[in-house]
């Protein structure tokens, strides 16, 4: 992969992650979109995980320390639900690895829908396990998922919109400037 293409893909991911710093509705984030985007376009799949995860972690570091500074002394390296959030991110990346070997509108749409669903299921399972609000029973799990439903449409909207912006923007630029295309002739 050309260095300029690598930087362009990384720049798109950084742009999306920086949007988390703007005011937004709960769960309206680029999380799923950047996991899918990285897997679709980085030839070396280690970068498809490293770059988005590092960008996500850096924004989490900033957001969590800004948000909880008044409650905690010291520096928080991870939020309480980080295992489940980053676990869902890894599962979304796996989905992107298999689904987006060829980028098309239908595959990106399916990936965004799948990303939202994966994040909903895994992150709310983590809330159920770690929150004293819900009993650790099937009824408690159902209560947790039911309470999370009103936030799902924000997750879905975020994944759809950010996927559209990332994939659409990248496709537009690489068609306008074909030398930036990540087409892999040596694969």
Number of domains: 1
Distance between the termini: 11 Å
Kindly provide the radius of gyration, computed on alpha-carbon positions and rounded to a whole number of angstroms: 17 Å
CATH architecture: Orthogonal Bundle
Q: Shape from CA axes?
A: elongated
Verbal overview:
Keywords: Membrane, Transmembrane, Transmembrane helix. InterPro entries: DUF6580. The chain crosses the membrane at residues 6-26, 47-63, 75-100, 112-131, 151-170. It is a single chain. The model has no long low-confidence stretch (mean pLDDT 85). The protein is 71% helix and 0% strand. It starts with a helix and ends in an 11-residue tail after the last helix. The longest helix has 39 residues, at 138-176. By secondary structure, the chain is mainly alpha-helical. Helix 1 packs parallel to helix 3 (45-67). The chain has a single domain (7-179), classed as Orthogonal Bundle (Arp2/3 complex 21 kDa subunit ARPC3), CATH 1.10.1760. The protein is built from six helices and no strands. The chain has helices at 3-18, 31-41, 45-67, 82-99, 105-130, 138-176.
Can you give keywords for this protein?
187 residues, mainly alpha
Please give a quick description of this structure.
By secondary structure, the chain is mostly helical.
Structural topology:
Elements: H1 3-18, H2 31-41, H3 45-67, H4 82-99, H5 105-130, H6 138-176
Helix pairs in contact: 1-2, 1-3, 2-3, 2-4, 2-6, 3-4, 4-5, 5-6
């Amino acid at each position: 992969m050309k260095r300029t293409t690598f930087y362009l893909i990384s720049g798109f991911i950084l742009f999306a992650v920086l949007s988390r710093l703007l005011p937004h509705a709960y769960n309206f984030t680029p999380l799923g979109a950047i996991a899918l985007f990285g897997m679709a376009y980085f030839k070396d799949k280690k970068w498809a995980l490293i770059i988005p995860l590092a960008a996500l972690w850096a924004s989490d570091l900033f957001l969590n320390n800004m948000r909880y500074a008044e409650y905690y002394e010291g520096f928080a390296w991870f939020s309480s639900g980080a295992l489940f959030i980053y676990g869902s991110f890894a599962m979304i990346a796996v989905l992107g690895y298999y689904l987006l070997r060829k980028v098309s509108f239908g595959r990106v749409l399916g990936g965004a829908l799948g990303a939202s669903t994966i994040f909903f299921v895994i992150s709310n399972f983590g809330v159920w396990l770690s929150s004293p609000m819900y009993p650790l029973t099937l009824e408690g799990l159902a209560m947790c998922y039911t309470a999370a439903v009103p936030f799902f449409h924000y997750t879905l909207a975020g994944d759809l919109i950010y996927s559209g912006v990332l994939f659409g923007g990248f496709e537009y630029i690489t068609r306008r400037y074909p030398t930036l295309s990540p087409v892999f002739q040596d694969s």
